[in-house]
Amino acid sequence: MDAASLLLPILLIAVFYFLLIRPQQKQRRQMMELQQSVQPGSKVMTSAGMLATVVEIDTDKDEIVLEVAPGVHSRYVRRAIVNVLPSGEPTSPGAADDAPTHEPVAQGEDRTNGDDIR
After folding, report:
1. Which domains, ranges and CATH numbers included, belong to the chain?
2. 37-81 pLDDT tens trace
């Protein structure tokens, strides 16, 4: 076997490592640091997309208690946290805007485009 035939497999392994394995390890390390940095009072988003406030952290069981609505607490594993929200961002979808998102329709007002729908 010559050196050229050994170079190709070594090169493929190196490319595979630097394009796939190393970035995934870096992302996993960043996610673990984020999950460890969560403190009570932090506003977070879970992997299911639920926005909540951290109430309590149980490091022995690696669990956290989240307040998902006023007075409603749920227990999650710490790995469920995927994002920590800035403190000024609302944790409920409707909290950001007090105005309705649609214009109210007056009673009897026709909002169709003129086609008769049957």
Report:
1. 3-85 (2.30.30)
2. 899 999 999 999 999 999 999 989 989 999 999 999 999 999 999
Neighbours of 55 (CB within 10 A): 15
Q: What is the DSSP string of the chain?
A: --HHHHHHHHHHHHHHIIIIIHHHHHHHHHHHHHHHT--TT-EEEETT--EEEEEEEETTTTEEEEEEETTEEEEEEGGGEEEEE-TTS-SSTTSS--S-SSPPPPTT---S-S----
Kindly report the pTM of this predicted structure.
0.58
